[in-house]
């Protein structure tokens, strides 16, 4: 569904000028310009709809992985402050996912498998107001100066019940969390301290 078609039912009218589309997008909370390109975000919206709360189950994940940039496209095209809730036991990432806008990821205990064989981290947080909760990172191999989760130039980042166990980093970085010029808090951080690698 195209951007104009999404705005018609929410902002009225069958013909909308470009200015009205931009105004409509601001009121429904959708990005006014897509960093990954309008057609890719249209494809994401065709898969998950227009919502500030997306449930990622195995059927939806299969569709998302067919998109040009997979899970990265999904998070790039979600409106700011959206919630991505996992309804699956395991998430296998094809590449690192960079979180560039405020988002909450509710893992519901999902185990995140590291991206490919390249030894990359799983999440790179580059935005304020990001929360990751109830995720497990187990048995990952990294070759990176950064950890599985790397927080950079970000404030108000929360990691709640995130577990790291049996991970290894031969690239000089930590096996779990790394941060640079950021403010974050750990809730139930004993998982992080006791099971860092």
Question: What's the story with the biggest beta sheet?
Answer: 7 strands, parallel
Poorly predicted runs: 1-35, 190-197
What's the SSE pattern?
Answer: HHHEHHEEEEEEEEEEEEH
Number of strands: 13
Strand content: 25-35%
Using only CA atoms, what is the Rg? 18 Å
**Class by alpha and beta content:** alpha/beta
Gross morphology is globular
* Count of DSSP H/I helices: 6
Please specify the SSE layout and strand pairing.
Blueprint: H1 3-11, H2 18-28, H3 38-48, E1 53-57, H4 58-65, H5 70-77, E2 82-87, E3 90-92, E4 97-99, E5 103-113, E6 123-125, E7 130-138, E8 141-142, E9 149-152, E10 157-165, E11 168-169, E12 177-180, E13 184-187, H6 190-194
Parallel strand pairs: 1-2, 2-5, 3-5, 4-6, 5-7, 6-9, 7-10, 8-11, 9-12, 10-13
Task: Walk me through what this model shows.
The protein has 197 residues and is an alpha/beta fold. It has helices at residues 3-11, 18-28, 38-48, 58-65, 70-77, 190-194, and strands at 53-57, 82-87, 90-92, 97-99, 103-113, 123-125, 130-138, 141-142, 149-152, 157-165, 168-169, 177-180, 184-187. Strands 1, 2, 3, 5, 7, 10 and 13 form a seven-stranded parallel β-sheet that branches. It has a four-stranded parallel β-sheet with strand order 4-6-9-12. It has a two-stranded parallel ribbon with strand order 8-11. It is globular and about 40 Å long.
């Amino acid at each position: 569904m195209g951007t104009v078609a999404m705005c018609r039912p929410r902002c009225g009218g069958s013909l909308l000028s470009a200015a009205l589309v931009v105004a409509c997008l601001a009121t429904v909370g959708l990005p006014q310009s897509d960093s990954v390109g309008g057609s890719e975000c249209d494809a994401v919206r065709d898969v998950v709809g227009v919502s500030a709360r997306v449930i990622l189950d195995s059927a939806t994940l299969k569709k998302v992985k067919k998109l040009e940039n997979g899970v990265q496209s999904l998070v790039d095209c979600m409106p700011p402050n959206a919630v991505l809730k996992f309804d699956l036991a395991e998430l296998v990432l094809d590449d690192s996912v960079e979180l560039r806008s405020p988002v909450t990821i509710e893992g519901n205990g999902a185990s995140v498998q590291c991206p490919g064989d390249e030894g990359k981290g799983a999440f790179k947080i580059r935005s304020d107001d990001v929360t990751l909760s109830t995720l497990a990172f187990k048995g990952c191999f990294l070759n990176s100066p950064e950890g599985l989760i790397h927080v950079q130039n970000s404030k108000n980042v929360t990691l709640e019940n995130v577990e790291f166990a049996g991970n290894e980093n031969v690239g000089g970085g930590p096996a779990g969390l790394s941060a640079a010029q950021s403010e974050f808090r750990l809730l139930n951080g004993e998982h992080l301290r006791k099971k860092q690698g």
